[in-house]
Queue: 3 jobs
Job 1
Amino acid sequence: MMQAEIVAAARGWIGTPYAHQASLRGIGTDCLGLVRGVWRQVKGDEPELAPPYAPGWAEEGGTEALAEAASRHMIEIPCTEFQAGDVLLFRWRRGMPAKHAGIAVSPFRMVHAQEQAAVTEISLSNWWRRHLAFAFRFPGVTA
């Protein structure tokens, strides 16, 4: 699998409306649903199903559940070494678990789904870089 395939798959979700716990391109998705949908496109069946989760799941659980799940199926890489096609996890506040995901499409941009918006491609501004907590690579990726 090539990085370009992941980037193209992620960009194919642009414009999909935000919908909590959904993962249907063109219909609705949240940030985890975007990553799940891209996985299905480039890898096949999802290796595990996400359990139901409330919008405040990270604050309630207090564990790095999203990063732990990613580490079961992807390769963790240093945040400073992410490339196009890598999954990025962000924490909103220091001391809180990471609860937002996006897919890098270049060293400076990512595709993500954010509440009250459609899937979009944005700049990885300094704000995003300060909140980057984890980076993961799909298994079997080549440049």
Job 2
Amino acid sequence: MVALFVDADACPVKEEIVDVAHRHNLTVYMVSNSWMRLPDSPLVKRQVVPEGPDIADDWIADEISANDIVITGDIPLADRCIKKNAIALDSKGKQFTTQSIGMALAMRDLNNQLREQGVMTGGGAAFSRQHRSRFLSELENTIVRAVKNSRS
């Protein structure tokens, strides 16, 4: 059975994920370093992990299985999940694939280096309604594909 894993601490689309999961009757694991208010639902599983680097990522990577879906902006976590044949989406609806993850990791490292050198400041574009809409569409399509793949 397909499950959703959410790197929840900085995720701006938690409510949307829960709504879509309810339509498909899928379990959602909200993984965070602290307690957070979430919709009261038997499908939503709150997993609070100790604070520390990569502890939430480690929990997700250990628990996720093939055809499960992770929602994260953490590119190394997405890479770990893809290697387990899971599906990785960011909160703007971009899917990380085996073909794209190498470039995403390289760009992440380059951007970190440029920030450390003071060449690049600031982050990416602000989260918008268009991002939310794209995410919802991609999540819906991804769930349909994952459920179909898990049955074959």
Job 3
Amino acid sequence: MKAHEFEFPEDRYYLKNHVWLKTDNGNILIGITELGQSLSKGIVHIDLPETGESIKKGDTLVAYETIKAVSQIALPFDASVTEVNEKLWEDPNIINGDPYNEWIVKIKGELDERSLMKVEDAVEYYGRLIAKERERYAGIDE
């Protein structure tokens, strides 16, 4: 499904902080949405957790730095890190090339679906967000 020109695959859940979650053989893959990566172009550094590390609900799982800002990924549930995408140590910017196939970390945890958005909800939420931002900046280039 799409929110404006940004794709949101139907096989995952979403958070309001531009993060997607996808179940995968008992694990949960975590990544950044296409919209999130377009806002995060130029990732220059990423702090990944250690495999085996336990992350409490609301604590930082991953932090990444772009040329504009530092962003953090936190989850609305407890999790344990089962694997990190080792390629990101060398080139964190690969997330921008293929945001739905380049995951950041794999975790184990109990998904609390009440705190996650299904694709329909995510498309509606992000669609409103994009429209509001475009309206806010309309006419600036004129």
